[in-house]
Amino acid sequence: MPGRRRRSVAVAGAALGLVALGAPPAAADQPDPPTLPAATVGCVGPSPVPAGDRISWPLARLAPQQVWPLSRGSEVVVAVLDSGVSGATSGLTGAVLPGRDVVSGGRARADCLGRGSALAGIVAGRDGPGGTVFGMAPEATVLPVRVIDGQRRVTPKALADGIDAAVTGGADVVVLGTGVPADSPALRAAVTRATRADVLVVAPVNDRPSTVAGQPPQVWFPSAYPQVLAVGGIGVDGRASQPAAKEGGPDLLAPGVGAVVPGPVGSGVYTVDGSAVAAAYAAGAAALVRAYHPDLDAGRVRDRLLATAEHPPGVPVGTVDPYSAVAAIDPEAGARIVRQGVTPVVVPVAAPPDAARTRARLVTAGIVALTLLVAALHTVRRGRRRNHPDRSPS
């Protein structure tokens, strides 16, 4: 991976960064962001809900802030293949390259649908207005590639051309926001070329219900190709948020509901769901790994993400664990790194995830502080007894 360098981070500094991670401000009084609308007529406008200081459930679940003392995705280019990425997107200032429109030509720095901007915000969003955290890898660079036409259509040729454009544009990771239900020699060849060029391709599995009752969804491409990291979504309960196809199912899971993302214009935020959202979170984790381990090729980055994934009992497909993926010493041996200060919990669906995590951190911090205070007082009292052995208790 030419042009990138490993960030030298002292172990003590990394530990300090983990300990210093504070609980996010409560956002209980903030209105819920609207769902990103489907722009059937005209373009998506600004959201009326400001960003505020909220942290979405997916980011609370993945906790990328705990990885940032080690890696923030610096010098990694992530290509986002969807509807383009708006240059006016909040939280992506200075992070977006001109890109390319493989459908109608030109650049891809505009986004009428808002989809590509949302995915880019998940991958590499900087801190937004009011301290909102959007992205997994806030120092990564986004290369937008438009593969969706004005009628919201996508073809195998557009996806193939988009992957080739991403490789030519210097991408280290490619994330697609969609797929097609038919295999294509051109698309398969483009994925092969990307793999040979040391580019990791991440794609969502089909999360659209089958048109035939009782049948699984159709297989999507390119996620069904073996070289591609196929990603499916999970809900707040940790379960897959959509049924898997018999073939071409996910290799990895990531949060696929409740993502808070910047709008294509303005400073407001929307929410988005779907397997494309999950793929974007996985691509952000891949960017963190590629920045910290520049010696690993795309295949080994893929293997590392899979080997360090969380595997609850009885769940065949693991959920991405960004911290373990970056910090694990020997992921091939199946050893996962447990994040300091984090105890796995089952998050009730009815409980607000952000508030629950905030309360848990505050309670834990209070217990630790109280323990340290008691120990300090005990030490002081013992010291006084040693200095005044004849003093009787009053």
Largest sheet strand order: 2-3-1-4-5-6-7
Indicate the multimeric state.
Answer: single chain
Helix content: 25-40%
Low-confidence stretches: 2-27, 340-365, 367-394
Mean pLDDT across every amino acid position: 80
Query: Based on helices, strands and strand pairing, what is the structural class?
Result: alpha/beta
**Beta-strand content estimate:** 5-15%
Counting DSSP E segments of at least 2 residues, the number of strands comes to 9
Keywords:
394 residues, alpha/beta, Rossmann fold, seven-stranded parallel β-sheet, two-stranded antiparallel sheet, 9 helices, 30% helix, globular, disordered N terminus, disordered C terminus
Descriptive report:
By secondary structure, the protein is an alpha/beta fold. It has a domain at 59-326: Rossmann fold (3-Layer(aba) Sandwich), CATH 3.40.50.200. Helix content is 30%, strand content 10%. The protein has helices at residues 11-19, 57-62, 115-124, 156-168, 185-196, 275-292, 298-307, 322-327, 353-387, and strands spanning 77-82, 100-101, 141-146, 173-176, 200-204, 229-234, 252-255, 259-262, 269-272. The strands form 2 sheets. A 7-stranded parallel β-sheet has the order 2-3-1-4-5-6-7, sandwiched between helices. Helix 3 links the parallel strand 2 and strand 3. Helix 3 packs parallel to helix 6 (275-292) and helix 6 crosses helix 7 (298-307). The longest helix has 35 residues, at 353-387. The model is unreliable at 2-27, 340-365 and 367-394 (pLDDT under 50).
